[in-house]
Amino acid sequence: MLVPVGITLFVVIQIFNFTEGVLGKHLPFYFPGIGLIALLLLIYIVGWISSHWLLKKIISFGEYLLGKIPVVKFIYNSVKQFSTAIFESNSMFQNVVLVPFHQSMALGFLMSDVPQVIKDKLGDDYVCVFVPWSLNITSGTNLFVKKSEVVPVEIKSETALQYMLTAGSSMRKNE
């Protein structure tokens, strides 16, 4: 319990020290806490400005430009699709399941429908399951599994993600 708290405090302190150091060098005045105030103010201003149509147009144009750069386009679109799927999807990571994987069972999440081009090859009796890798849930494996081999697990998706992220060392009781 002490390690996560310590790491969190360390990261937060480093961010504030960096912000205070940068502002202390470039502003004609300095007082303790200016980094925190500047960071909170920046977050508020960006949120406020992003709700206006002009900034939306600028962001859209920036995305258009990023979409024209060959390698950057691939990276940006992949990250954007992944973050949209995680933060804006109501169905992703909702259904926790067990599926066969290398002569054992893997914990994963039932995903959206199988694309038609894959259905044409496998048939209609398959589903897509995302199996995140332990310690790095941003990576994982998509498996196409027969519906009959999928075992639903009655736990919250947050509990399953925590279990995967900690490489199986943590699972809340009674969930």
* Helix/strand order: HHHHEEHEEEH
Average pLDDT taken over every residue: 79
What is the overall silhouette?
flat
In total, how many beta strands? 5
Oligomer: single chain
Structural class of the helices, strands and pairings? alpha+beta
Q: What is the rounded Rg?
A: 22 Å
Most strands sheet: 5 strands, antiparallel
* Count of alpha and pi helical runs: 6
Q: What is the helical fraction, as a range of percent?
A: 40-55%
Biggest sheet: strand arrangement: 4-3-2-1-5
Total count of domains: 2
Name the poorly predicted regions: none
What distance lies between the first and last C-alpha atoms, to the nearest angstrom?
A: 20 Å
- Beta-strand level of the residues, as a percent range? 15-25%
Structure write-up:
The chain has 175 residues and is of the alpha+beta class. The protein has 2 domains: 2-87, no CATH class; 96-165. It has 6 helices and 5 strands; from the N terminus they run ααααββαβββα. Strands 4-3-2-1-5 form a 5-stranded antiparallel sheet. α1 packs across α2 (34-50). It is flat. The chain starts with a helix and ends in a 10-residue tail after the last helix. 7% of the residues are buried. The model has no long low-confidence stretch (mean pLDDT 79).
